[in-house]
Amino acid sequence: MCPRGARLIAGQGKTAVLVCHCLLIEGAGELVLVDTGFGLDDARTPRQLGRVFNALGRPQLDAARTAISQIRALGLDPRDVRHILLTHLDLDHAGGLPDFPHADVHLLGRELAAASKPRWNERPRYVAAHWSHGPRWVQHEARGEQWFGFDSVRPLPNSDDEILLVPLPGHTFGHTGVAIRRSDRWLLHCGDAYFHHGLVQTPPHCPVGLRLVEAFDEVDRAARRHNIERLRELALAHSGEVELICSHDAATLARYAEPAGVASAA
């Protein structure tokens, strides 16, 4: 996405770029996808995203960059994506759901409830066409065992990789992070809990434009700010054990990009 107000959002340069950072996890004979980004239907029919979003967010909708196309480019079969874990149902996170109709879609029940009956000011963020095919929803409650001081939910008990939902409400009512164990370390995909890597650094910093975007999109300011503070403490106290990423930070995604030009997630 190349939103307007570049200098306020990017903090430098002439073009602001916000990515949709998804994760693909290879397990025992199956694939797990964390968020889907925009999908093929979005690329074919951009107007379904809404005039306001297209005008302000200016998404660069390229079918080759969708999750399903990148999975194929990696030589993998999209039909092997058996589970999708959604941080939330915003249009830039759930647009690819129709591309994986056979997958179980895991999310917090509160998020599905909010998207099913959105308040008037939340309607633009949810696109019903993204789930009109009838996904195989798997709803989870925001409670469970502790993970580094956070409540967590374990949605894939039979997976070889330990994958947790870590509720982080504030951006939406049912927003959640997704934690993945990588040998002796954890990777926590924080979704839209924050928009810039500087917010979980000490001292925190962030372009003013992104702070305004975060505030505009939030449904619970106190909860969102509280979770950012908790994530910053987590990053500081457990830097050798947990790595944090978020959905829209282009600099973070660039660290994971394949040198051959096929991004590991986008």
Please give a structural write-up.
The chain has 9 helices and 11 strands. The chain is an alpha/beta fold. It has a single domain, classed as Metallo-beta-lactamase, Chain A, CATH 3.60.15. The strands form 3 sheets. Strands 1-2-3-4-5 form a 5-stranded mixed sheet. Helix 6 links the parallel strand 4 (104-108) and strand 5. The radius of gyration is 17 Å and the shape is globular.
**Uncertain stretches:** 260-266
Return the string of H and E elements.
HEEHHHEHEHEEEEEEHHEH
Q: Largest beta sheet: what is the strand line-up?
A: 1-2-3-4-5
CATH C-level class is: Alpha Beta
Shape: globular
Over the alpha carbons, how many angstroms does the gyration radius reach?
17 Å
Subunit organisation of the chains:
single chain
SSE diagram, text form:
Elements: H1 6-10, E1 23-26, E2 31-34, H2 40-44, H3 51-57, H4 67-73, E3 81-85, H5 91-94, E4 104-108, H6 109-116, E5 136-140, E6 146-147, E7 150-151, E8 163-167, E9 176-182, E10 185-189, H7 208-217, H8 221-237, E11 242-245, H9 250-256
Parallel strand pairs: 2-3, 3-4, 4-5, 10-11
Antiparallel strand pairs: 1-2, 6-7, 8-9, 9-10
List the defining traits of the structure above.
266 residues, 4-stranded mixed β-sheet, 9 helices, 26% helix, globular
